[in-house]
């Protein structure tokens, strides 16, 4: 077998994990999903600017809107986490600070996504 | 003896005027970070709706005030800018739009589409309100 690796690399036995484009690819997937979601969100929210609490609750409770909102929240915070991670990786040079910032941002995004989804479900199912 | 160096020099950062494409590129990043705060605002509004009419009325008071409208208008433009430039990135990903003239033209198109979407959205809001 034609192995181009150095003897040291062969001894370590560590190769590529074949996940090199994972972050890039999932960022593209979330972008694609956000195209219809953002257009829908922008224009429908614009059409209810002075909505009363009753109107807004009725709107969020309609099943397609509930589904779209939950989908939007999950995708937005996933996409935000990925984007903010890249920004941190580019501008925070001290290793421990960079790692700490990425962990903090990731947990915050997860927390906010959970709070958002629970809020939508409380509105939609609570009544 | 001084040798004449005719090789191209790297741009001097302090006096280098960023081309439009570069300005738009960094704006994409900045709007992305700004929109993370927009997502935070969205969650805040949703929790206020879930908490009941009184808490929603308080939030709505801020949102309909002049400063709230200003912030919402800013988020709208940031959202559509990031949206349009994001689509441009997706075209780059399939290998389209790298030529200098097309890149320059698309930079302007990004701004035009973002502005148009912002205006149409706010027109819809004004007519509905």
Task: Describe the model.
- Chain A is mostly helical and 127 residues long.
- Chain A has one domain: Fumarate reductase/succinate dehydrogenase, transmembrane subunit (3 helical TM bundles of succinate and fumarate reductases, Up-down Bundle), CATH 1.20.1300.
- Chain A has helices at residues 7-12, 22-46, 53-61, 63-91, 95-126.
- In chain A, helix 2 packs across helix 4, helix 3 crosses helix 5 and helix 4 (63-91) packs antiparallel against helix 5.
- The N and C termini of chain A lie far apart (67 Å).
- The mean pLDDT of chain A is 93.
- Chain B is mainly alpha-helical and 129 residues long.
- Chain B has a single domain (20-128), classed as 3 helical TM bundles of succinate and fumarate reductases, CATH 1.20.1300.
- In chain B, 78% of the residues lie in helices and 0% in strands.
- In chain B, helix 1 (20-51) runs antiparallel to helix 2 (53-64), helix 1 crosses helix 3 and helix 3 runs antiparallel to helix 4 (100-128).
- In chain B, 26% of the residues are buried.
- The A-B interface holds A 28, 31-32, 34-35, 38-39, 42-43, 46-50, 53-54, 56-57, 60, 69, 73, 76-77, 80, 83-84, 87, 109, 112, 115-116, 118-120, 122-123, 126 and B 29, 32-33, 35-36, 39-40, 42-43, 46-47, 49-50, 52-53, 56-57, 64, 76, 79-80, 83, 86-87, 89-90, 93, 117, 121-122, 124-126, 128-129.
Summarize the structure.
The complex is a heterodimer of chains A (127) and B (129). With 127 residues, chain A is mainly alpha-helical.
Count up the helices of chain B. 4
Strand content of chain A: under 5%
Structural category of chain A is: mainly alpha
Biggest interface, and residues per chain? A-B, 37 and 35 residues
Rounded to the nearest angstrom, the distance between the terminal CA atoms of chain A is 67 Å
Number of structurally distinct domains of chain A: 1
- Ranges of chain B where pLDDT stays below 50 over 5 or more residues in a row are none
**Quick one: CATH superfamily of chain A?**
Fumarate reductase/succinate dehydrogenase, transmembrane subunit
How much β-strand is present in the residues of chain B?
A: under 5%
The shape of chain A is elongated
CATH superfamily of chain B: Fumarate reductase/succinate dehydrogenase, transmembrane subunit
Mean residue pLDDT of chain B: 92
Shape of chain B: elongated
Calculate Rg of chain A over CA atoms: 21 Å
What would the CATH topology of chain A be?
Answer: 3 helical TM bundles of succinate and fumarate reductases
- Through-space gap between termini of chain B: 76 Å
Q: Main β-sheet of chain B: number of strands, strand sense, barrel status?
A: none
CATH level 1 class label of chain A:
Mainly Alpha
């Amino acid at each position: 077998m034609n192995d181009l690796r150095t003897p040291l690399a062969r001894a370590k036995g560590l190769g590529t994990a074949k996940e090199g484009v994972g972050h890039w690819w999932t960022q593209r997937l979330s972008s694609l999903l956000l195209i219809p979601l953002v257009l829908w969100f922008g224009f429908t929210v614009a059409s209810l600017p002075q909505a009363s609490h009753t109107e807004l609750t009725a709107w969020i409770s309609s099943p397609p809107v509930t589904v779209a909102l939950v989908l939007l929240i999950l995708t937005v915070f996933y996409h935000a986490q990925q984007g903010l991670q890249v920004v941190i990786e580019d501008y925070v040079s001290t290793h421990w600070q960079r790692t700490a910032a990425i962990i903090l941002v990731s947990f915050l995004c997860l927390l906010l996504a959970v709070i958002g989804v629970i809020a939508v479900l409380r509105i939609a199912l609570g009544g | 003896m001084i040798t004449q160096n005719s090789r191209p020099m790297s741009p001097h950062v302090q006096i280098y005027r960023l081309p439009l494409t570069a300005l738009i590129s960094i704006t994409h990043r900045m709007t992305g970070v700004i929109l993370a705060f927009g997502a935070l605002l969205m969650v805040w509004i949703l929790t206020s709706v879930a908490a009941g009419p009184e808490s929603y009325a308080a939030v709505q008071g801020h949102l309909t005030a002049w400063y709230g409208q200003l912030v919402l208008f800013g988020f709208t433009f940031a959202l559509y800018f990031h949206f349009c430039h994001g689509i441009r990135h997706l075209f780059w990903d399939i290998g389209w739009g790298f030529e200098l003239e097309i890149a320059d033209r698309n930079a302007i198109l990004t701004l035009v589409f973002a502005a148009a979407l912002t205006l149409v959205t706010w027109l819809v809001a004004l007519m509905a309100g």
